[in-house]
Structure formats: C-alpha cells, structure tokens
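Technical note accompanying the year-one report. For the benefit of new consortium partners, we illustrate the data format agreed upon in the data management plan: each record pairs a sequence with a structure-token string. No post-processing was applied to the example shown here.
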Amino acid sequence: MNLKYIQKKLNQIFKGDERRIVVWYDDDAEFRDIVNELELENARIHHLRDNNQLYTKYLLEVEDTVNSYLIYAPFPRPSDEENYLADIVYYSTPFAADRISLIIQELKIPEHFRPVLEKYRKFWNADSRIGKFEKLNIDDYSDENIKIGILCVLAGVKVPNFDELLKKVLIEDFHENRHLSKFEKMGILEDFWELCRKRYGYSAERPTIKNFLITLLITYTATRFRGTIPGAWDKLISERENNVTVFISNLLNNTHYRDKYDEVASYIAESIKIEEHIKKIPPECYLECDTFEVFDRKIIEHNIDLLLGTGSEIGGLDDVLTERKRTHFYGKYRNHYEVLKWANSLIGMINIFSEESSSGIDDFVEKYCSRWYMIDLAYRKFYYAYDRLPSTDKPHDLAQLIENMYINTYLSKLNRLWSMKLKNTSIEDLKYDKQHQFYRKHVAPSINEHRTAVIISDALRYECGVELCKKLSSNPRNSAEIQPVISSIPSYTALGMAALLPHDSISFTEDCKVLVDGRATSSVSERGRILEEKNENSLTWTHSEVMSLRMEDLREKIKNRDLIYVYHNQIDARGDKQATESEVFNAASEAIEELLELIKKLTNQAGISNYIITADHGFIYRRGDVPESDRIEIPYGEFKLKNKRFIISEEDPQIEGTLTFSLDYLGMDHIMVTVPESLEVFKISGGGHNFVHGGTSIQEVIIPLIKLKSRTGKTEQRVVDLKLVSIDRRLTNLNSYLTFVQTESVSETVLPLEAKIYFEDENGERISNEVIIHASSKASSPREREFREKFTLRHREYSNRKKYYLVIKNMENDVELERCEFTIDIPFSDDFVF
C-alpha cells in the first residue's frame, strides 16, 4: 500500500518534460529494501551512500544533465557544512515519506491523530498490518477507534468492534494469552485494559483475563438472580452491569463461541467454587440464571428430590421448564428436563387415577381411551429421554420411583380391575368394534367409495396411535379421527393379522397355525393371495417395499387398484427380541415417524387420499425385572400352544391366577385360551419378559383404528410471524420490557420460528442484549402466544435525534424479518449508573 502511494506521488512530481531532481532523505532507512521496486515513469533512481557523494554530484551536473533523478539517501539529511550535495539539495525538490505521514495520507486519518499513530509506530512497520487496518473500513476516526482498530488487527478480528475483539481474546485466548502478548509487544496492552475498565468497569492493579471473566460472569449472573446474591460476589460485581449484560448475553447466543464458552465457564465455576456459593440458596433464586451449567444441574437435582420426597406432582414445573428452554445450557440438559417433565406428569396422572373408579366395562374402556392412556404415553416418553442420558448421569432413584408407581399403583391395579370386569362380561358384549369385524365394517364400505390404503403396524398400541393421529391432524390437509377397537384374544401377531383379513372363518391347524377360510396367513404373500381372492384389484406390500419405489413405479403399480394393504413392523420386530426389547420405546417413536413418511409418500406420489391405520395387537412393557411372584408355573397337560402371556388348549387348564376364554366368538367352540389375570407371565424359556403381548391387559387388547382423509398435492409451508405488539417506539430507560405476539398457531403448514431480537444503532452496532424467542405455540388464543421480554441497553450516550432499531432475525438462517425504528431518550446514560 505505502509503496504504491509513494510511486504515485513521485510520478506526479516527475510528470512533464522538464528535468527534475528529487532528493529523499529516509531518516530510518524504512524503504531501503523496497525503493528499487518503484516504477517511475520519467526518472531514474540513484542511491546516495557515504562513499559516492562526489560521484553523485558529477553524475547530476556533468555526466547526465538530461534525465530526471530520484536521489534516495537511507539516512538523515546532514548539515550543510558536512553535505557535499548541499547546493543540489537547495535547488532540487525535497521528498519525505515517513510511514506515519504516508499512513495518514493514505487512510485519510486527520492530522491531529498523528500522536496516537506515533505512539504505536512499531505496529505500522508491517505493510500486512496496515492493509488489514485499512480493510476494517473505519469511518469515524477517534483515538479510541484507532486503538480498537490496532487491537482488532493484532487479534485477527475483521470488524472494528471492541465486543468482537473481547470475545476472541477472552474465549479463544483464555489459557495461552497469545493476543495479550501481541498487545504488549506493540505497546498497546495498557490501552486494552483501559478500554475494559471504561466499558465494563473492570479495574485491577494487575489485570488478568481470568479475573476479568470472573467479573463479567458474576455481574451477569447477579442481574438474573432473584433475591440476595451470595456475599462473596459483592466485590466482584461491576458498576457497568448493563454493558456486561449486553456483552455476555450476546456471547451466550453466539454459536461460534458456544463450545469454547462452556469450557471457560466450567473453569471459572470451579475456580471460584460457584457450587459452594449456591449450595444453601433455593433454586427459585436462580431459575433465570444460565451463566454456569451448575444452575441447570441444581435445578434438575432439586426437582428430582421434590418428586422423590413427596411422590406428588410439582405445581408450576411446566413453567420452569419453559423458562429453561431459553437458557444457554438447555441443549446439553434437554433430556434431563424431558425426564423431569414426563416424570412429573406421570406422577400427577397416576395420583389422580388412584382416586378414580368406573361404573362398567364400557365406561372403563372410555376412561382409558380418554385419559388413562396418557399414563402409558408418559411412561414411554420418560424412558425415551432417560435412555438418552449419559450412563453416569441417570437419576436411578427417580426411575425406581416411576417404575414402582407405574407398575404397582397404575398398571397392576388397572389390569386387576379390568380382569374383574372381563370375568363377568364377554368380549363380544363390549359396545366397541372388534378386530375380526375390521374388513367387513371398515374396509369393504371404504373401497366401495374410493381407493383405500390399509396400513397395519405391528404392536402399535393405543397410546402410540393417539400420538400418530394428533400428528396427522396437525396438517390442515388431513382429517383424522381415532377410535378404539378390541383386538382378538389371544392378542398376538398370527391371530391379529388373520382377523384383519376378509374371512368367513378363522381356524387353527393342529400345530396352531392360523388359517383364514382354510388358507395360510403367516406371510405377507399368503395374506396378499387371500386379499386378491376377495378383491382382484387389491395389492399387498411391506413398508420397506413402498419406500423403495420410485414415484413412476409406484403410480404404475397402483393403477386400477382400489385396495392396498401395507404391513409395517418396527415395534414388534425390536420388542420381541430379548437383545433389543429395551429399545421398544425408541422403536415406537421411530414407528410413528415412519408411518408419517409412508402416508406422505402415498399421498403425494401415488395420489391416495383415504387411509385406515390399525394394529394387530398392543403390548405391555416394563423396564424393571419381572419378579418371581409374577411368573406362573404351567402344569403338565395337553396344550396346543404355550406363550409367555397365553396358553391355547382344548380344555380349561384351571390354573390359579388366570382367566380362560372360549374362542367361540371366532367360531372355534372347542378352543380355549388361558391368560394371566394381570401382568404375570407364564414360565416359558427363551426370549425376553419385559415386552409382552398375547394376554388381555387393556394395553394389549385396545388397539387404535385411525381413519384419515388426506388431500393430495404438496403442502405449502411457511414460518410463523412474530410481531412487536408495543405501540410506543420510544425508550426512556436502560431496562425496558416489550411484548411480542406469535401471529397464529403452529401447524403442519405454519412452522415454528426461533428468533433472536436485539437493538442496534444507525451504524449497525449492537446496543442491547439478545433475546431468544421460541415461537412454537399451538394455542388458539393470541394472548397465550404473547412473549414479554426484557431488553437491557448499554451505558452510553444516546441522542433523541438519532435513529435506533429493534431487529428481529430468524436464528436458523440469520435472515432479518423485521426492523422497527425507535427513539431513545435517556439523558446522561453514559455516566450515570441506574
């Protein structure tokens, strides 16, 4: 940069036909090594040395009196008495090119800032540093801005912003202090610490990065603390708390520094023994604090202790968890909070359940399908999150409480009551549809009106069906409704799959293979042949076959077909194997997502709009070991089939603790099925005991039947809008609250928005903390979709004649969604501490 500028100036001097002699005394020989790189258009370069001064005089006045010359002398100009060229110097054109002068001219820095440039002369010696300084594009020069620019270049920051500089120095340079060493080498370290004092109130006789960080983090924590802070923190708090709040808030939300911040915060927390300071402080005091992850751990531990100590639902916990979602370490502790959420919900629902009663068996089913099923769902969600916790971080005592309450207070009691009602009522007498009526009552009428896809998901129990139905209904293109259906008894795959086919009769072979109208039903292909015999325009697939087809092939294969049966097996495939039965709740979540994708593909690529979704049976799953008292010995006798949850025989074996039913409802008067009264299992070798089905528990025999109408075509999706509600666009205090509203409910077509919101000035410099809003509410009432947020402005000078802006950005892509102009009218805010 400097060389080009010198070249330009010299060529301007030499311009024209007149001969010119230019003498350049370079006092510090700064340009000695590069002067020959000058490309002069109308002059020659001659180097003046101690031993060639007489020759130089001869050259200019005798040997070559035609050409113009630049006489370069890499030393100060001598006195006239000692200078053989004094006369030439007087009639020549003098030229000076010290770096500071050139920098001032090139960067258009006002001359009165020369002293600050001179102070850091060493910095300007490298062209590379000057080039980086120029690229900062500093518009408004001041002593402070020049210092910040120098610091930014040394730290590798590409914008002239002290906060960005500070983030890099504090976080990236925490242990090595490489940047501080550079500052010291360039003589600007003291100025760095002075800027820290001026902006963030940190002052120390021997300042260190560690102590500065302690001041920043404790000050920020104190602003979010409810009640009296620990006494040990008083001396650590800066009077510039607003500036600190803005800085740390923006740092916590900076994805680039997130991991490094966590490392630094952990080190600081350990150094000042933060856990000791808050040991006796109620968690309510630091519910909004997120500077250190110890706050998350303590909040989680406290609420787990409450659940363990009381065995009761914690009121207001959902609000606490919603608040924690906005905090820095939530991502790391998401599954811990999910464990808390579902444990709290499950405990509350079980305690309510224990006080309830039912008047009859139909009422019992109605209560299960309207609310008790949610206990099974909460149990599944609890373990889904629990299994994702690190093995060293699992709350085993809480899991034990959940297990005891779920098994003993809910599951055992529920199914004992259910068994008592079954003793006095035939399954056929229930008012609800039966599985063996499925094709006649639901499929046949449907295909008479329109093409129908029947999806049978193995072991999709009722609570999973409800979750699937809700997700389907969230798409405005869908209309979905669910009803309970009573499965066949025994509730196992072979019989359930057969009952879902068109049939006149169902029977067993001698070795208990299930036949439909005398035809085998074990495989998908065998079921497909039965369907084709009933309806030649039917088609049978597995889930994987459908998902592997290209759109063109899919459309070709369903042409002229009015019935498609699709078999899906995720839950039973994992649960029925001892090695993977503990994964059954993962499998349930995956199954729901796979079914959603299957329906989406069939709708969008094949144009199918009518669906019936059901299951062959449900299941029971318990995490704890099955006690010996829950294992029933099978007496010696003639049995057609023995299973952990049922026995098929031709006579009632009269085993204590069991129920025996006739399969006369399927036309098999001579066949009996015996099942445990409640959760017990028969002693059968092989396989697991935690995931079971085949019995008559309500979780096994109540299966979902979902009828879905889906409009074809691509669903247009958009992100929900977030608007500022507050009408007043004038701030009169450094701390202000603003209200925002999510304009509509989130749905399949209206996607949630994660927005970051902050204030900035006309130059784009942030002047406030950054607020994160998760606009994901499904509430219908606008008031329930409001967010009241606190904004903290920096301590600095504000003018009511300048413009300031509230900026709303989409966090996912950093796209600006809205910019609202504000006036800030706060006198003396730069000096007065509010």
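Partners are asked to follow this layout when depositing records. The chain has six domains: 2-97, 112-200, 206-278, 294-410, 427-623+691-710, 718-824.
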